[in-house]
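Exercise 7b. Backbone tokens:
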């Protein structure tokens, strides 16, 4: 008899424990945001700004292909080979409005022509 009572009590405890909410399952605390959607460093302004007077020197993590995409996104075509200088600026030649020019991409992704 005692064994039957203990079995029922144990089963009731397990059912109650399985029905409890945990913090991981509680969605009332706000939306879950993926790590890739959160700012990595608010102190660094990485917003591309084409109105700046020139490229900003700084450690550039863009690949040549990414720099080329930024240049093409700014309306340039016929983007030539790019090289990265000691200041982290990607430089090369490109065409816009039928004119060949030298372009630069800084660590922010800002494209400037010279």
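Sequence design result:
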């Amino acid at each position: 008899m005692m064994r039957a009572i203990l079995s029922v009590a144990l089963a009731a405890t397990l059912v109650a424990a399985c029905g409890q909410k945990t913090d991981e399952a509680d969605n009332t605390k706000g939306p879950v945001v993926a790590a890739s959607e959160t700012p990595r460093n608010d102190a660094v302004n990485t917003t591309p700004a084409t109105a700046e007077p020139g490229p900003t020197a700084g450690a550039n993590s863009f690949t040549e292909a990414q720099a080329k995409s930024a240049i093409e996104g700014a309306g340039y075509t016929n983007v030539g080979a790019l090289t990265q200088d000691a200041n982290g600026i990607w430089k090369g030649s490109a065409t816009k409005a039928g004119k060949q020019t030298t372009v630069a991409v800084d660590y922010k992704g800002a494209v400037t022509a010279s």
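Instructor comment: The helical segments are 2-18, 64-73. The chain has a mean pLDDT of 75.
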